[in-house]
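Re: that backbone. Tokens:
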């Protein structure tokens, strides 16, 4: 089958189809794979799926992306030669979705939120990969019951922490597929233009990210320590009270700064000029901010409830503190201020953690191992052309 024939099979009224170059429509589809996302917003899970799409495109796969909602990532998916299908209907026609999914040797469903799709697609698709990213709160809130236990369903966890949550809440095993962090480090170290130590916090301003914890920790420092640092906050969120607190502190204290959110390339440039990256979250399944700090060879302070903490050793490659404990965070900050010139090895060790778990090279190898083991090849299905839908059920897959 060529692209045109695949698209014809998926050309429903409620789906808008986007393709970068119409000239490829007559090109034969060699290794098709369908990636399903809950949306195309510039947020963690859709970005992780975009990284998967880019990695698989480089390896020769033909990428089709189906999203239930559009978003700003649409153009970036098109940039990696994906065909993007955006569902615009009010409710999903599951039978039509099944007829679309069975055209592909493998389907990747992204996030716990799409559990209903997994329930429907896993019994009829040859291979279904379910990549789960969510924290404990979402397991408590979202419906993830009645997932079929069949050989064709492979559950992936975005971190070891997610794997533990899957085991606890679902009683299922999973395979860790860590998210990827692209390498933006400039190998030549930037020389410091002043003796001030620059601390950086970025993220959504909410009760989970807890930016106020860093403020509390800084205010607990001895005055001489406070004079040696400045702190930059960057972010936005629906929590107007916390946002106003950051703004008020920035207005009052000359060494505290607040900026609204930036696009990612600009954010990386800001982070590059910082010395210390701080993550205060109550809970995160990974913490991409911490991983980016390690990538840029910064000193990272991270709460112990973030998934990345599983790979970190306090004082060796980063600094860990008990989530929610501003006193302990303040002590870590004071230590870093006092010992800053001696922390070169900590920064280098942190960079090695990034390279071992979150680098592009490691992610590409994980993708090769994962899909290579699954023997995903082009089946050049003719089902669509013949108008045939292979009605396989859960029972037949369980016996297989």
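Recovered sequence:
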């Amino acid at each position: 089958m060529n692209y045109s024939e695949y698209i014809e099979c998926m050309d429903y009224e409620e789906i808008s189809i986007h393709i970068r170059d119409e000239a490829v429509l007559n090109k034969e589809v060699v290794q098709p794979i369908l990636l399903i996302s809950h949306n195309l917003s510039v947020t963690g899970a859709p970005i992780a799926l975009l990284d998967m799409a880019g990695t698989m495109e480089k390896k020769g796969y033909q990428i089709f992306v189906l999203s239930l909602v559009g978003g700003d990532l649409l153009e970036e998916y098109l940039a990696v030669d994906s065909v993007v299908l955006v569902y615009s209907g009010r409710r999903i026609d599951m039978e039509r979705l099944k007829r679309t999914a069975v055209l592909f040797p493998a389907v990747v469903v992204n996030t716990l939120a799409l559990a209903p799709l997994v329930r429907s697609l896993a019994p009829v698709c040859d291979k279904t990969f379910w990549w789960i990213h969510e924290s404990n709160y979402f397991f408590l809130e979202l419906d993830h019951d009645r997932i079929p236990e069949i050989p064709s369903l492979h559950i992936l966890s975005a971190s070891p922490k997610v794997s533990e949550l899957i085991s606890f809440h679902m009683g299922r095993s999973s395979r860790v597929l860590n998210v990827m962090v692209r390498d933006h480090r400039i190998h030549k170290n930037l020389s410091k233009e002043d003796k001030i130590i620059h601390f950086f916090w970025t993220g959504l301003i909410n009760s989970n990210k807890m930016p106020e914890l860093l403020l509390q920790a800084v205010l607990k420092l001895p005055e001489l320590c406070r004079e040696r640092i400045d702190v930059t906050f960057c972010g936005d969120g629906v929590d107007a009270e916390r946002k106003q607190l950051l703004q008020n502190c920035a207005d009052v204290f000359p060494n505290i700064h607040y900026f609204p959110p930036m696009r990612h390339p600009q954010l990386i440039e800001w982070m590059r000029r910082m010395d210390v990256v701080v993550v205060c979250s109550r809970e995160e399944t990974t913490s991409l901010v911490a991983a980016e700090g390690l990538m840029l060879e910064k000193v990272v302070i991270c709460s112990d409830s973030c998934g990345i903490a599983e790979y970190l050793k306090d004082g060796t490659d980063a600094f860990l503190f008990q989530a929610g404990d501003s006193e302990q965070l303040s002590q870590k900050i004071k230590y870093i201020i006092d010992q800053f010139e001696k922390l070169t090895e900590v920064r280098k060790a942190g960079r090695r953690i990034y390279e071992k778990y979150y680098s592009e090279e490691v992610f590409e190898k994980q993708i090769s191992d994962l899909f290579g083991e699954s023997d995903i090849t082009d089946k050049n299905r003719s089902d669509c052309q013949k108008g045939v839908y292979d009605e396989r059920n859960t029972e037949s897959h369980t016996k297989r």
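The chain has 17 helices and 14 strands. Residues 377-400 have pLDDT under 50 and may be disordered.
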